[in-house]
């Protein structure tokens, strides 16, 4: 009887060793190997048509404020393996949801006939970005230079960069970057908008947000 009990116990232990829970433990090794397989060396990254939005706040004659969100629908950006970041925004792609307002922005404010593009440049810690594991995020206080409407502005953007797969990194602003209408020499065009729209004023600070998925070039 005692011998039979030993045989049963040994059989149960053998079954436990082959149970799904044990298989799950054994499967952790390929997951760890997959994480280590993420490329972590500096590389070139690129994005097309990032999500770039901006807010405009208008004050009417009754001194009520209305804030509206608009966007640019055409842009491209690259992050080089040397850390050089360059983004070009087609200002004629502005989209406020109202066609005539888009045209007024292009003609009066951006003056796209003379200043068709806005360019953003900077130097990023690409080594820190490249070493991100999948799911890992880092925050960056990123100095940038904005070239727009014939002016160059020094900016700082609070950014979050998250690796969402081996070859993709999502970059977004943690808080909007504030642009000043005066600094961009757009006061005259904005004044025309105020007049034609029958407003009291348009707020001179414009919050801009950015979100883009960068793809690692092979």
TrEMBL record:
Pfam families for the chain: YceI
Signal peptide from the UniProt entry: 1-25
The UniProt keyword set, sorted, is:
Signal
SMART domains per the record? YceI
Known Gene3D superfamilies for this protein? Lipid/polyisoprenoid-binding, YceI-like
Domain Lipid/polyisoprenoid-binding YceI-like stretches: 44-215
| The keyword Signal appears for this protein | yes
Q: What is this protein called?
A: Lipid/polyisoprenoid-binding YceI-like domain-containing protein
Natural source organism: Neisseria weaveri
